Amino acid sequence: MAERLAASSLLPASSPSAPRPRVSASAAAASFPCCSTRAGGLRLRSRPSRLPQQKAVRSSGRAGRVVRCTAASDAAQLKSAREDIRELLKTTYSHPIMVRLGWHDSGTYDKNIEEWPQRGGADGSLRFDAELKHGANAGLINALKLIQPIKDKYPGITYADLFQLASATAIEEAGGPKIPMKYGRVDITEAEQCPPEGRLPDAGPRIPSEHLREVFYRMGLDDKDIVALSGAHTLGRSRPDRSGWGKPETKYTKDGPGEPGGQSWTVEWLKFDNSYFKLLTMLQDIKEKRDQDLLVLPTDAALFEDSSFKVYAEKYAEDQEAFFKDYAEAHAKLSDLGAKFDPPEGFSLDEDKDAEPAIEEKAADPAPAPAAAAPAEEKEAEPTPVLATVGAAAASPADDNNGAAPQPEPFVAAKYSYGKKELSDTMKQKIRAEYEAVGGSPDKPLQSNYFLNIMLLIGGLAFLTSLLGS
């Protein structure tokens, strides 16, 4: 909904003397997390991924049969790139601009155009200067500066996948929901394939609700998607010198993190939650008393002014879990728009994780059967049965010590003194330990009642104490 700053100025433009492109207010992206800064100087390589998009080989044994041997992106490299992105986010606080990078690459999609790549969408086109120069993309050059080293490190992934991976990872690392992403997007190969300017939303249109529907309906999204995606304004800031919106700085942004300044939509503008909707709810009746350091754009206000939008906005203000669920679905849907997948069904990076708990449970099932450790009575002098017992207890599903060694059972006299003719095994072990401590043998029968002797001893001591006291 307006330009948003995350870490747009973490890296300076490579040509400080280059003139700053003029960005009008109408060029600001309305429903996308945005961030603008000068775009002069840096030229990224506009060549396609080094990994072939479509590679075919003849199968051995059947002449003439052609099979596909590789996907658009390598899954292992994508997983490694995701870890690098997580580390990048920790040091640069670039969550908002990474979200915007993915959104602006896919948000050019037009459902009325069937041909790829003319239809736009998530195809890596945003790496080309032709599209970077679009007014709504001002500042995204800085996101590319940050992420290009990761692309160089992992040449087996496409820009289209990398942009969407960075966007989804930024949401998750900021505390948002897990996005059900799939990968395998094919890159366009030349700047001439970039979509025309003007497909992204504005921040201050004449009739905000109509404009939002015009833009997002063209992508095949609906009112619920519009409101849920607007909730990403919980992240980031806007700068007036770059988007025409916001203040130079506020009490929430003057100290960063990242480059200080700008105006945020929320107080904690690097935390993904439903505070954006909560704040808008409070502003409905007390607009003149609202926190002037927080940004509210015409497209933000429209969420509570339009009756259809308002239903979802109020729901998300009250129920963060519902917001997270709908947002994750909408984000995943947006990230797939217009993409050409190879393989056609795409692939997930987390499919294998679902099977891990079952594997662990199977491995743990045999653990409760350390029968060999049970006959400890025949090996009193050997310490190994004790170790076996501890190991078995730690592996047992019934253990509630979180892997710690089991504690000795507390002695309860009633447990051993309720008419049994034979002492329990636990009591026998206690008696053996006491006899062995004084050189006795546990195999010799007791000469008298053990408990009676103890009581007589205690009574005798008490009697002597009373005599001495008198």
| Percent range of helical residues | 40-55%
**CATH architecture label of the domain at 208-330:** Orthogonal Bundle
Written as H for each helix and E for each strand, in order along the chain, the element string is EEHHHHHHHEHEHHHHHHHHH
Structural class: mainly alpha
| Main sheet: strands, sense, barrel | 2 strands, antiparallel
* Estimated share of beta-strand residues: under 5%
Number of helices, where a helix is a run of at least 4 consecutive DSSP H or I residues? 17
From the spread of the alpha carbons, the general shape counts as elongated
Overall pLDDT: 75
Q: What's the CATH C level of the domain at 208-330?
A: Mainly Alpha
What ranges have pLDDT less than 50 throughout 5 or more consecutive residues?
Answer: 1-31, 33-69, 354-408, 410-420
Computed over alpha carbons, the radius of gyration is 34 Å
Q: What is the strand tally?
A: 4
CATH topology of the domain at 208-330: Peroxidase, domain 2
The CATH homology group name of the domain at 208-330: Peroxidase, domain 2
Distance, first to last CA: 93 Å
Order of neighbouring strands in the sheet with most strands: 1-2
Protein name: L-ascorbate peroxidase
GO biological process, one term: hydrogen peroxide catabolic process
Cofactor: heme b
Domain Plant heme peroxidase family profile: 121-360
